[in-house]
Write a structure and sequence with these properties.
Blueprint: E1 3-7, H1 11-23, E2 27-31, H2 34-43, E3 48-52, H3 60-70, E4 76-81, H4 85-93, E5 98-102, H5 106-133, H6 147-159, E6 166-169, H7 176-185, E7 194-198, H8 204-212, H9 229-232, E8 237-241, H10 248-260, E9 262-264, E10 271-273, E11 277-282, H11 286-291, H12 297-303, E12 306-309, H13 319-335, E13 341-342, H14 344-352, H15 358-372, E14 377-378, H16 408-422, H17 427-434, H18 438-448
Parallel strand pairs: 1-2, 1-3, 3-4, 4-5, 6-11, 6-12, 7-8, 8-11, 13-14
Antiparallel strand pairs: 9-10
Helix pairs in contact: 2-3, 10-12, 13-15, 16-17, 17-18
The structure holds adenosine-5'-triphosphate and magnesium ion.
């Protein structure tokens, strides 16, 4: 059984965690301060650390850094008092795997501990497997040269055959759809259905009936009964895309399906049982949505059993040349053009770009390039990168300052409206430009009085 080290200066809390985690079968080492904690780390093989951030002597953050220096792979879960989210964020930046806000339920702590240990074990197994076999993970039609994508594929290969719920994270266009399908195709359910539902694209009142179906007469216009996506996905996989946009009322129903795999159709009394594997995806920071109360915590923990985060393309530029070749071959074939490849100069352009729209943007640019190209190689003139300064470059320069008579808030409102304009009304993109979450942006827009259009 894994060994857990708990560092907490409050004796009651320490005792409570110690008892509960021991009851779960873990071996527990308890320490009342960071120094004792570090000693335990030197003496024992520790699989996971739980630490308070406020400690006497060496504080929790320093302790976290010391643990990471000793062994960067040990997952560290930090506990922090409600209202000090900033320190939690700092801890996450310093390498904490997750955090809980006090007061928390023991159930929550146990879920997090189990999840972190699972992820940790998976990573270790991946590593040793890879090392033993010198293996490269290859999936049909998925380009993955970079170590980061290799890691993603290694995890996909390990979780695909299980029934575990997977939560895919990553910016728009990084390949979440693609990975969701790969998970299905490599699972024992591959011959069953893969049913995708985009939770943003569907208005709230329709989303519920889309997911769970309805009985005849459930609402005006329900002239016959209809199964929902969950029923259609029976014996297969359901892919809940943009899960962060699911409204509260439906989150409750989803929670029940995730827990018990059962639900009732709208207007129905019969309980429907289904056998489905759930894969969800989001391009938002769900932790931020938790903090703002727009996403249920219990649902989050049910979804976040195996998290897979797909890094943005700018963090794995090694994939760019292979991706370019992959797309050139595909579009050349589709268009019947005799294009063989890309010139070194054009390839350099692609390497130097920062890819705010990730792989999808690269795919579009290659498609356009192939359509435009007259030769047998894609050249600099065929590669039309979107270099508009609105993207990636800070909107506000160092000299920007609210004009006379304009308050900081009004000034910020102006920047927010401008970001939305530059993003052509796309909130996710505007939020990214501003470096805030989509929900934070919606909140600000509501305050400014911009109508909330759910499709953008
Ligand atoms: N590693 C890859 N190899 C080959 N093709 C890729 C890769 N990553 C992404 N793609 C392609 O790029 C396009 C965008 O990927 P996908 O639709 O999966 O992104 P996404 O993360 O779901 O985006 P969004 O959040 O906008 O829905 C797709 O056509 C996909 O096939
Ligand atoms: Mg997608």
């Amino acid at each position: 059984m894994p060994t857990i080290l708990i560092v907490e200066d409050e004796p009651k809390m320490l005792r409570l965690l110690e008892l509960n985690l021991s009851e779960e079968g873990f071996t527990v080492r308890a320490a009342a301060d960071a120094e004792t904690g570090l000693k335990a780390l030197r003496e024992d093989r520790i699989d996971l650390v739980i630490t308070d951030l406020k400690l006497p002597g060496m504080d929790g953050l320093e302790f976290l850094q010391a643990v990471k220096r000793a062994d960067a792979r040990i997952p560290v879960v930090v506990m922090t008092a409600y209202g000090t989210v900033e320190t939690a964020v700092e801890a996450m930046k310093a390498g904490a795997s997750d955090y809980v806000l006090k007061p928390f339920s023991l159930e929550e702590m146990k879920l997090i501990v189990r999840k972190e240990l699972d992820v940790h074990r998976l990573r270790e197994e991946n590593r040793s497997l890879r090392e033993a076999l010198g293996k490269r993970y290859e999936f049909k039609n998925i380009v993955a040269r970079s170590p980061k994508m290799q890691e993603v594929l290694a995890t996909v290969e390990r979780v695909a055959p299980t029934n575990s719920t997977v939560l895919l994270g990553g910016e728009s266009g990084v390949g979440k759809d693609m990975v969701a399908r790969a998970i299905h195709q490599h699972s024992r359910r591959a011959s069953g259905p893969f049913v995708k539902i985009n939770c943003t694209a569907i208005p709230e009142n329709l989303l519920e009936s889309e997911l769970f179906g309805y009985e005849k007469g459930a609402f005006t216009g329900a002239v016959s009964s209809k199964p929902g996506k969950f029923e259609l996905a029976d014996k297969g996989t359901i892919f809940l895309d943009e899960i962060g946009d699911v409204p509260g009322t439906i989150q409750v129903k989803l929670l029940r399906v995730l827990q018990d795999r059962e639900f009732e159709r709208l207007g129905g009394t019969r309980t429907v049982r289904v056998d489905v594997r759930v894969v969800a995806a989001t391009n938002q920071d769900l932790r931020a949505a938790l903090e703002q109360g727009t996403f249920r915590e219990d649902l989050y923990y049910r979804l976040n059993v195996v998290p897979i985060n797909i890094p943005p393309l700018r963090e794995r530029k090694e994939d760019v040349p292979d991706l370019a070749d992959h797309f050139i071959a595909r579009f050349a074939r589709e268009s019947g053009k005799p294009i063989q490849g890309i010139t070194p100069a054009a390839q350099k352009l692609l390497m130097d770009f920062h890819w705010p729209g990730n792989v999808r943007e690269l795919e579009n640019i290659i498609e356009r390039g192939v359509a435009l190209s007259a030769g047998d190689m894609l050249d600099v003139a065929d590669v039309r990168l979107d270099l508009s300064p609105a993207r990636g470059v800070p909107a506000v320069t160092g000299t920007a300052f609210p004009p006379e008579g304009v308050t900081l808030e009004q000034f910020e409102d102006g920047i927010i409206t401008e970001a939305l304009r530059r993003a052509n009304g796309n909130k996710s993109q505007a939020a990214r430009m501003l470096g805030i979450s989509r929900n934070a942006l919606r909140y600000r827009l509501a305050k400014i009085g911009v109508p909330d259009d759910p499709d953008s």
